[in-house]
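Sync notes, pocket subgroup
Present: LS, DG
LS reminded everyone that the earlier model was apo-only. Rerun requested with dinuclear copper ion included. Inputs:
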Amino acid sequence: MYRTACILFAWGLGIGSASAKDLPLNMPRGVTDISEQVYDLHMTIFYICCIIGALVFGAMFAAMILHRKSRGHKPAQFHESTKVEIIWTTIPFLILIGMAIPATKTLIAMEDTTEADLTVQITGSQWKWHYKYFDYNLEYFSLLATPMSQINNRFKKEENYLLEVDRPLVIPTGKKVRFLITSDDVIHSWWVPEFAVKKDANPGFINEAWTKVNEPGIYRGQCAELCGKDHGFMPVVVIAKAPDEFDTWMAEQEAEQRQAKEKEKELLGMNMEMDELMTLGEKVYLARCAACHQPNGQGIPGVFPGLQGNHMVTQDQEAHIDVVINGVNGTAMQAFGKQIGLKEMAAVITYERNAWGNNTGDIVQPKEVYEVMQK
Amino acid sequence: MTQEYQKYYVPEQSPWPIVGAVGMFLIAFGAGSFVKELSSGGGYGGYLLLAGMSVIIFMLVGWFNNVINESMSGLYSPQMDRSFRQGMSWFIFSEVMFFGAFFGALFYARMFSVPWLGGADNNVMTNAVLWPDFQAIWPLVKTPGGGETTAMGWQGLPLYNTLILLTSSVTIHFAHTGLEQNKRKQLIGFLGVTILLGCIFLFLQAEEYIHAYTEMDLRLDSGIYGNTFFLLTGFHGLHVTLGTLILFIVFLRVLKGHFQPDNHFAFQAASWYWHFVDVVWLCLFVFVYIF
Amino acid sequence: MSKVIEQDHHEHHDHHHPSGGIKRWLYTTNHKDIGTLYLWFAFIMFLIGGCMALVIRAELFQPGLQIVDPDFFNQMTTVHGLIMVFGAVMPAFTGLANWMVPMMIGAPDMALPRMNNWSFWILPFAFFILLMSLFMEGGGPNFGWTFYAPLSTTYSNDSTALFVFSVHIMGMSSIMGAINVIVTIFNLRAPGMTLMKMPLFVWTWLITAFLLIAVMPVLAGAVTMVLTDKYFGTSFFNAAGGGDPVMFQHIFWFFGHPEVYIMILPAFGIVSTIVPTFSRKRLFGYSSMVYATASIALLSFVVWAHHMFTTGMPLFGELFFMYCTMLISVPTGVKVFNWVATMWRGAMTFEIPMMFSIAFIILFTIGGFSGLMLAITPADFQYHDTYFVVAHFHYVLVTGAIFSIIAAVYYWLPKWTGNMYDEGLAKLHFWCSLISVNVLFFPMHFVGLAGMPRRIPDYAIQFADFNALISVGAFAFGFSQLIFLYLLIKCIRENHQVPAKVWEGADGLEWEVPSPAPYHTFEKPPLIR
Ligand code: HEA
Ligand code: HEA
Ligand code: CUA
Ligand SMILES: [Cu+2]
């Protein structure tokens, strides 16, 4: 009924072109018991408001049609009635109580994060999410995967434009998953509409939320608190897998993460070529740094320093490596040491020192990065 | 119902408000640039700020001169006096709310944020995961980030200051009764003492600040304890300074014989302001120093 | 109900005639001049803030980044919000209060005329600073009109200090304006004008002024803490020092929620004045209207955290704020019901002020309903920070506050200028506005529910159709306001004399002085029976 009404409305406004079925009109019903409760609550209040609206506006239009001067209606003299006032104070009050009861029940259920089967720590930072599984040896970052070319309208936008990430969060279905949500810099908000979970990520505090997904699938959401320039480019993607599939996935990931750590060690003995570093470096730069320092390395004056011709980048190599590893405390420049591997780090620093006419000719090897890291 | 009703004095056009508006502009723009330049250096913000303050002082002198002249030439009515009084009371109410914001911050920190960082309520994981070494105690002498400081006790200077301000509230009351009963000596004497007490208070507070900075490692940036301590006492100190200045001007006017037992709004306003500042201090003394 | 017993305009004309030219406006102490200044200032700010909204809508016309970069987009959102709230709606209401309150209570002027001038003239300077900061290196404020820490502290750009001080000045202006209104109302009423005989516009402004004095200083405190956190190393909003970013939100919304009622209570007053006039029937339930206004104001102090349901408050807090917020619907409902009861069995005509008032009642109620939905905490988890919220507050602000201001201007314009406005143009203005404003804001409910976050310069493709439509509505609504601008100028310049009592059913002291209202009214107070 809601859909039909809305679709009629939308057609009335002239959006008949889009197939009406796909029109984004209402809150999703979601895939958890909680989200369904929330949806029902939403529809209940909505219908109550519709009814009250129909009554109030109905009375008003009746008056406007019947009691107009042009029809010769003479004004009545009444202008007060305590009885009526009491009635229309009490009835809305009772309606509100009727709404508050189910709302309270749902809310209490939503805030009960005890007895979880799995705990994931979610950390927001400008502009990515970091997931860390408790009780497993796995943590990783999750970044927007939509290429700039689509955002800049150079390529056609694909289906999940702005709602796709490189590494989604994976959780098992049918299990109560608890989220510990926090932030490294400003306030973000982790939101998946299909779970009816939206919780702010406050720096320095941990908020808890939970979900129990009924159906396997891919669920998409977005950061829901203004967190600076790329707030609109910070999606959340969650894949819910059946528990056994989840276990295999987890085993694979843990193995991969272990291997990667071992590879890091090998890197220390390795000497990489300029070309290799520059290609890899550009890739990393565009993915991780360009959001602030801009693809052309010129930054945004007054907000993000330019790296082209930058004193530190063209001269002091050790300080440069140090800044990228440890960040600058109390600024948007994060400590990338925890986020990027040695090889990528070496590559991106080499890239910065040689791109955009910086041409220092410096080659930074993973070993050098490692040494600064140890200090 | 045909009660005769006084004619109301509507002042003529006045250049002072627009002068004041320019002054405010210079202050805001100057202060904005000045604060920014504290970190980035250079600039002219400080000069603009000073210029703005001079303009405001110029404006106040001119404006009050007008008001005083009008008052002296008997243009005012009791109704106008009421307007001024009510205006002043509402202004003080707005000041109460301003301090309320900072007291609110203090109570929030003490009742919520610090305990939460220590793991209270629904923040068990906050403490366990993010700040495992942190313990919630007030005064917060060790912040979650690891900064350390010392808490200011209530004995000594703060206690003296409390006594001084309380006394000054009494003395200004006596000055007021002196004015109302047309006892000039009592008026001048007690008003003078009040101003003196205000100055002593400010001097002792400066001492206290120096002590805090040099010996106790208690600074404006020493975590939420230092923040609330300095902003609350600092804004209070600013109000005492202002109050003392106002009292001083009133004192000069008393010497000139400006006030009558039944017409002394400026005096009344100054004394209300002084009582208000005094009450704020009492709250400060209780919630910042003692508990 | 009331009558001017004696009205002599020639008695003392000699003292203080306005000096001509620009000086008249710079030096004025006359409540009508200052009211006019406030109203024009508000209108200009509305156009500027509206142009920023059009930048937002132009960028959002299609998915992808086309016109502005994301950082500038955020600046537009922020400054649009600030300008509309502090520069358009609030000064417009203050302007109306300046013009009408003294006339409605039979006072010769505002109680503190010089301060009145000051509280106006600092405003243009404050907004000059704010607008100028947009041209600084690094740009202007970009953290939303709510300036949540630490985005506005540690992570903000250099314009923040200017933002802070300009907000301080706006606050001072509002406080002084409010003190003036309160004192005028308490102290300058004509003999016989008891509190319960005051027109409702005066009542709602009395309560609004109280709210202003109570909460603007809290905003000043909030920006001060932002300033010290950013520049002086304090950590009010930084957990490492024992503070809490969420504390900022508590302080801000303690101001912010009463603030939104500051922007709607005078509107209630306006509608309560206009509806009886054109229904030719006394307002139904005068005293319950007064009590409802007071209850809304009192409740507004205990609901602030409904803007913060997702911040992770303890359950108890969430429940408390949910219940209190829901309660506000009751007194607001009383108002709506009373308006309808006033129309019921009246003898209605539909002049433009009435048309805007009726549109107000319907559309504000729709906005109120979405507000009630937002108040339901579990549902708010889904709505929060989506376009559903944007739809909610534009319904209560644009079709609420702005429509009521437009209604008030149409209602009193003949009194101010002595001329009747062009009825045809006004009708055009009304219908264009009514249709476009709904095309503009109604679909925002849909995209919001379907999951489009607010404050984003680019969005997923399923939202594209609606956003294009919304943008079309925005431009249409914007250009409809140019009709209004033209109409105003026309009305001021042309001559279509109106009698003292412009509207047949109007009631109140302001209709007993000639039109246009003379420079000084009620130098001798009228007597109220
Ligand atoms: C004029 C301004 C104005 C007004 C009047 C209101 C009125 C209300 N608002 Fe709104 N609100 C804003 C301006 C306003 N708001 C703004 C600007 C924001 C966003 C700020 C930001 O984040 O930038 C906001 C956001 C906002 C939120 C936060 C949403 C979020 O961010 O998640 C909430 C949540 O509870 C809310 C609730 C309400 C309620 C319950 C009312 C009630 O007062 C409404 C009461 C009215 C009615 C209910 C209709 C009439 C009543 C009847 C006909 C009686 C019968 C009805 C029933 C019993 C159902 N508002
Ligand atoms: C009273 C307050 C008010 C008013 C009147 C408006 C009016 C409008 N608002 Fe605004 N809005 C807010 C208060 C208001 N808004 C607030 C508080 C926010 C939140 C900010 C935040 O998130 O921090 C917001 C946010 C906001 C957003 C969300 C931005 C985002 O989340 O990123 C959008 C998007 O569409 C929007 C659109 C509009 C439009 C199209 C209008 C239209 O009604 C405007 C119509 C007027 C015009 C278009 C002007 C007409 C003038 C001309 C056409 C030319 C004139 C020529 C010259 C001057 C030379 N507003
Ligand atoms: Cu992260 Cu918005
Ligand atoms: Cu609110």
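DG: Chain C touches chain A through 104 residues (CB under 8 Å).
LS: The CA atoms of residues 257 and 304 of chain C lie 5 Å apart.
Action: DG to write up.
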